[in-house]
Automatic annotation (TrEMBL):
Reaction(s) this enzyme catalyzes, per UniProt: tRNA(Phe) + L-phenylalanine + ATP = L-phenylalanyl-tRNA(Phe) + AMP + diphosphate + H(+)
Gene3D superfamilies reported for this sequence: Bira Bifunctional Protein, Domain 2 (3.30.930.10), Winged helix-like DNA-binding domain superfamily/Winged helix DNA-binding domain (1.10.10.10)
Cofactors: Mg(2+)
Protein name: Phenylalanine--tRNA ligase alpha subunit
Organism classification: Archaea, Methanobacteriati, Methanobacteriota, Stenosarchaea group, Halobacteria
Known partners and oligomeric status: Tetramer of two alpha and two beta subunits.
GO cellular component, one term: cytoplasm
Any one Pfam family match given in the protein's UniProt record, by short name: tRNA-synt_2d
SUPFAM superfamilies on file: Class II aaRS and biotin synthetases, Winged helix' DNA-binding domain
UniProt binding sites for L-phenylalanine: 346, 389-391, 429, 455
Length: 509
């Protein structure tokens, strides 16, 4: 007869005369107890072994039980203190008895209720009497506790000559714990003995069906291994495009769908493109050295279009138009040539609008970029030192705030966001200017999501643009917060990011 190897091992180890526990079989066969239990059930079904089940009860003392075994039960200690105070002769006051007993806190109540239950005496109106006949040292509860304490940690209940009621009482008092386990012992049946004598061998199980097995017909005889469809499989995390990148792609698709073309340009750029072209005065606080990430090498840009530099400088000094006003502050070309990481991608807009990047543009035009910008901010749940800005602008005759707001409503609606709010704002390069806010889906707080406006004459004229341009910079990370409910930008970005969240969040389309 052929059987799986675990069953063979059990059968060869089991005896017809002497029952053996599963644990004994497990150590004799060197198989895990679960495997032996499984094999034993299979063998029982085949009629080769018999299983006898017994419920085994083990008892352990709780910490409190062990303490009483050592120091005496609270009621015993109370009785002794009462005796010492003469309560066997006359009633004595309870307070001093408690003091003498050394009992504290909840133990006092435990002592008093058990004192009465065990008839050690009477407690009435704050006075105690003690029955001189009582013998607390022979108290069955105490004796049981002491017996348990003397034995090993776990005690087989059957081996303990203690009354069941006493054990019940001790269990109710929380002084011991009882645990029941099923112990299975195994004996060979007559059929088992017969099979053993006839000879059994371990069946080789087939794990995989092969073409040979099928064509040879051997499959007919083969014993197939069983599948464990409930086994835990290892989780394999494959690579994944970061949700920021995925959302950036989606934003790009959306803007392309709205008729925009993509801008490209340097991450490190001359201040001229980052600030001067935007009519940002050179003494503007945002241009101070601690707010920018300057480059050590190269420190300055080689090429700037000379006529543009001249026009930008004139706008800064004198303003534009007949009634124009400039800043009346110093303007230094060397300062404009200094290179830093861009704090916004409006530097790209300046490059494109000036004609420097892809030549002169005729209206209407729509351009965007979804790219990284760098700011020396203080890290907090909504600020990082770098983030993705969704830059965009529309060049056309006669643009108004309605077109600007309408564009945002159309854009955000495609991400399921319909409650954009606008607040008046100030930028040196736009007039009017608006900040955009959205409502955080879980906290309900207003989150700033972008900044926008209509570019001023002082910016557009030097760039050579003769019609209106409306423009904006939106934060991609803030859009994600509104879409997925993140509260801390550092969950998705940087060294502290939450990998589980990044793995599990699916970008919705
Ligand atoms: N540059 C602005 C910022 O970084 C965004 C902006 C771009 C505002 C264009 C108005 C016009 O916040």
């Amino acid at each position: 007869m052929q059987l799986p190897s675990a069953q063979v091992a059990v059968l060869e180890t089991a005896s017809a005369d002497e029952a053996q526990s599963v644990d004994a079989l497990a150590s004799a066969t060197d198989l895990p107890p679960e495997t032996v239990t499984g094999a034993v059930f299979e063998l029982e079904e085949a009629g080769l072994v018999a299983i006898n089940e017994a419920v085994d009860e083990t008892i352990t003392l709780t910490d409190e039980g062990a303490e009483y075994a050592d120091e005496g039960l609270p009621e015993t200690r109370f009785y002794e203190a009462a005796l010492a105070a003469g309560a066997d002769e006359d009633p004595v006051e309870m307070g001093p008895v408690i003091g003498r007993s050394g009992l504290e806190g909840p133990q006092v109540n435990i002592a008093l209720s058990n004192y009465a239950r065990k008839d050690y005496g009477v407690i009435d109106s704050g006075e105690v009497t003690a029955d001189p006949e009582a013998d607390p040292t022979a108290d069955p509860e105490l004796v049981a506790l002491e017996t348990l304490a003397e034995r090993d940690e776990e005690v087989d209940a059957d081996s303990l000559a203690v009354d069941g009621d006493v054990l019940d009482q001790l269990e109710r008092r929380g002084l011991l714990e009882r645990r029941e386990t099923t112990v299975r012992s195994v004996t060979l049946t007559d059929a088992g003995v017969t099979e053993l004598m006839a000879g059994i061998s371990a069946a080789e199980t087939v794990g995989q069906v092969t073409p040979e097995l099928l064509t040879s017909g051997e499959w007919r005889e083969a014993e197939f291994s069983e599948y464990n469809v409930e086994a835990d499989a290892e989780v394999v995390d494959g690579g994944n495009v970061h949700i920021l990148r995925q959302t950036a792609e989606r934003v790009k698709d959306t803007l392309v769908g709205m008729g925009f073309q993509e801008m490209e340009g340097p991450h490190a750029d001359a201040d001229f493109w980052i600030n001067d072209c935007l009519f940002m005065p050179q003494d503007h606080p945002a241009r101070t050295h601690w707010d920018r990430f300057a480059l050590e090498r190269p420190t300055h840009i080689d090429h700037l279009p000379e006529d543009l530099v001249e026009r930008v400088e004139r706008a800064h000094r004198e303003g534009v138009g007949p009634d124009g006003e400039g800043y009346n502050s110093p303007w230094d070309e060397d300062f404009a040539r200094a290179i830093a990481l861009r704090g916004h991608t409006t530097s790209l807009s300046a490059r494109y609008l000036s004609g420097e990047q892809i030549g002169d543009l005729e209206p209407p035009q729509r351009y965007f970029s979804v790219e990284k910008v760098y700011r020396n901010d203080t890290l907090d749940p909504t600020h990082l030192l770098e983030f993705f800005q969704i830059e965009g602008w529309v060049m056309a005759e006669d643009l108004s705030v309605r077109e600007l707001m309408g564009t945002f409503e159309e854009f955000y609606a495609q991400f399921g966001i319909h409650d954009i709010e606008f607040k008046p704002h100030y930028n040196p390069y736009t007039e009017p200017s608006f900040e955009l806010f959205g409502t955080h889906p879980t906290t309900g707080e207003l989150v700033e999501i972008g900044n926008s406006g209509i570019f001023r004459e002082e910016m557009l004229e030097p760039l050579g643009v003769e019609c209106d341009v409306m423009a904006w910079g939106l934060a991609l990370e803030r859009l994600l917060m509104l879409m997925y409910g993140f509260e801390d930008i550092r969950d998705i970005h940087g060294t502290l990011c939450d990998l589980e969240l990044l793995r599990d969040t699916e970008v919705t389309y």
